[in-house]
Amino acid sequence: MTAATLSPPPVPAAAGPGLPVDAGAGRYGVTIGGHRLLLGAHSAVRVLEPPEASRLPNTPAWFLGLSNVRGTLIPVHDLAALLGVESDDRARMLLVLGEGDVAAGFLIDASPRHLMLASEAPGGAPVALPPPLAAHAGDGYDIAGDTWTELDWDALLDELGVMALHG
């Protein structure tokens, strides 16, 4: 299995955990079902070829199951399937957020992109995201003519866990 760990983009000296990142700072963004989503500025991120997932009984089709990633079982989610949108399976990658027991996987449309936030960001026109993404969306950033949306990945993961068990 091919793996890459993304180092956090350089953080200006004035920024740190819990503090706003200065304009001009780099961030990673991913595309899921055509939606452009930003990863947290200080997220632990790995990108892998999608591994086999062991399905769990009585769970929705978008919850692909559990995969063994470096000796840790992680839940794997297909948000494009949840949203009912098509994705090119040949280009998809597994985005692993977090580490150890708090890691989770999301299928993404392609490798993450390194983006530079302009001094005028945030300020992109709000993008109407479908549920459950909309409930966890934050600011929009206009980058090279596209709007990239902040997403609270931890809160989304909590909601997906509830949906998988009760949905």
Structural notes for this entry:
This protein is mainly β. The chain has one domain: Beta Barrel (OB fold (Dihydrolipoamide Acetyltransferase, E2P)), CATH 2.40.50.180. Helix content is 11%, strand content 35%. It is built from two helices and eleven strands, in the order ββββββαβββββα. It has a six-stranded mixed β-sheet. The longest helix is centred in the C-terminal third of the chain and has 14 residues, at 153-166. The N and C termini lie far apart (31 Å).
What key attributes describe this structure?
single chain; 167 residues; mainly beta; OB fold (Dihydrolipoamide Acetyltransferase, E2P); six-stranded mixed sheet; five-stranded mixed sheet; 2 helices; globular
- What number of domains? 1
Strand order within the widest sheet?
1-4-7-8-6-5
CATH fold description: OB fold (Dihydrolipoamide Acetyltransferase, E2P)
Averaged pLDDT, please? Answer: 83
Find the count of extended strands (DSSP E, 2+ residues). 11
The class by helix and strand makeup works out as mainly beta
Cα end-to-end separation: 31 Å
CATH class: Mainly Beta
Q: Which blocks of ≥5 consecutive residues have pLDDT under 50?
A: 9-23
Query: How much helix is in the residues?
Result: 10-25%
Count the helices. How many? 2
Output the CATH homologous superfamily: CheA-289, Domain 4
Largest sheet: 6 strands, mixed
By CATH, the architecture is named: Beta Barrel
Strand content: 35-45%
Order of helix and strand elements from N to C terminus: EEEEEEHEEEEEH
The coarse overall form would be globular
Radius of gyration: 16 Å
